Amino acid sequence: MKLYYAPHTCSLSPLIVLKELDLPHALIKVDNQTKRTADGRDFRDINPKGYVAALELDNGEVLAEGVAIVQYLADLKPEAKLAPPPGSWQRVRLQETLNFITSEIHAGVAPLFNQALPEAAQAIFRERLLRRMSALQHHKHVMGDAFTIADAYLYTVLGWFAFFEISLEQWPAVAAWHKRVAERPSVQAALMAHN
Ligand SMILES: N[C@@H](CCC(=O)N[C@@H](CS)C(=O)NCC(=O)O)C(=O)O
């Protein structure tokens, strides 16, 4: 498998999952400005949507969309229990959470990266994001006691909050969880490689 990635982006999430599962993979860096891959190709020929993450399987299929990629990877090694079995009610709950992370938190923080947005618009997006954050219910991990793919994804997107001086300390349970997840060997290995 090949993971197409760009530093400081959401491709960190599937990389954490690859490390967590100890699955063999190659990493191909993408320049998100020029859309060129490190090996000299036009990334839009690989993922026509032009954004990371994209996972190329050994049969040549390319899978995009972070929540699809992490679920695909988790299902390759069900014994690792990074996701409950497909079809189970717990899996539906996980999908509910992954969708919340992608559509409310990931897509909620994305406009803050847009420097062309006027300050008033930035403030509206920021306020909406903070409101969504208050809906996060934190236990030991996102889905309860055990680390799952939802932790890998949420850890990744909350890592961007520091760019906008949004302190996680205003949600103490979230801040404590974020520090715990950062200490996982898979996360450390992914952070080292994702540059
Ligand atoms: N819906 C996609 C969004 C992926 C996405 O936002 N990728 C960003 C980095 S986090 C990107 O590569 N943006 C570059 C671009 O849109 O040109 C997903 O959830 O995987």
UniProtKB/TrEMBL annotation:
<dbReference type="InterPro" id="IPR036282">
    <property type="entry name" value="Glutathione-S-Trfase_C_sf"/>
</dbReference>
<dbReference type="InterPro" id="IPR040079">
    <property type="entry name" value="Glutathione_S-Trfase"/>
</dbReference>
<dbReference type="Pfam" id="PF13409">
    <property type="entry name" value="GST_N_2"/>
</dbReference>
<dbReference type="GO" id="GO:0016740">
    <property type="term" value="F:transferase activity"/>
</dbReference>
<protein>
    <submittedName>
        <fullName>Glutathione S-transferase</fullName>
    </submittedName>
</protein>
<dbReference type="InterPro" id="IPR010987">
    <property type="entry name" value="Glutathione-S-Trfase_C-like"/>
</dbReference>
<dbReference type="InterPro" id="IPR004045">
    <property type="entry name" value="Glutathione_S-Trfase_N"/>
</dbReference>
<dbReference type="Pfam" id="PF00043">
    <property type="entry name" value="GST_C"/>
</dbReference>
<feature type="domain" description="GST C-terminal">
    <location>
        <begin position="87"/>
        <end position="195"/>
    </location>
</feature>
<keyword id="KW-0808">Transferase</keyword>
<dbReference type="InterPro" id="IPR004046">
    <property type="entry name" value="GST_C"/>
</dbReference>
<dbReference type="InterPro" id="IPR036249">
    <property type="entry name" value="Thioredoxin-like_sf"/>
</dbReference>
<feature type="domain" description="GST N-terminal">
    <location>
        <begin position="1"/>
        <end position="81"/>
    </location>
</feature>
